[in-house]
Structure formats: C-alpha cells, structure tokens
Amino acid sequence: MDNSIFLAKFWGWYLIIFFLILSFNPKRIKQIFSDLKDEKFLIISAFLAIIIGLLNILFHNIWAPNWKIIITAIGWFSLTIGLALFILPKQTVSWLEFINIKLVQTLYILLLIIGLFLLNIVYGIIQY
Asked: Does this model's pTM top 0.90?
C-alpha cells in the first residue's frame, strides 16, 4: 500500500474519531489541558508527538501541490508541537490553551473537514 494512502486513512480516521470524542465529551479537552500541567504527562505527550511527527515526515515528506501536502503538514505540525512542548513547556501549554479557547469550534469543524476530505480521497465516496 502506498504511504500516502495509508497515512490518509490513518489521519482521516484519527481526526474524525478525535472530533467525535471532543464533540460528545467536551470536558475531555479541559482534562487534557489540566493534565499537561503535570510534568510526567507533558513529557510523555511531547515524546509521542515527536515520534509520530518524525515517523510521518520520514515516510511522507511530500510537498506537492495536492492533497498529499495535508499529510506532510500534519506530520510537521505534530513534530513542531512535540518539540515546543519539550523545549518550552509552559509557554506552549499557555499558547495551546489560548488557541483552544478562542477557536474551539473552528478547530473542531476543521478536524472533521480534514478527516472527511482525507477519507474521501482514499475511498472515493464523493467524486469531484
């Protein structure tokens, strides 16, 4: 299976599942931010984000002007957030809290749209 197709399936399903969890249990996001104040949780989260981002980039660093750039951007975003959490934890957590409070509904809808778009690319549900 092509790396792009595999990662489109992975990120598509992941984003939709994450959207559903946050939609049906909005207290979960507050719990995540309160857990990020615990150093152990923060370090584990940072390491996971770095690993996931780095693996994504190593397997898929395609900067073509098509749908594949979304997968590459997700990998770079994950790596950047992981490094920021590891290097500047307090500033990054406060920045993430600010972004989430200001743009929470926009972010949730964006998760859904990107997830649906990637799954549509893979499964060809809606032809365009």
From this structure: no
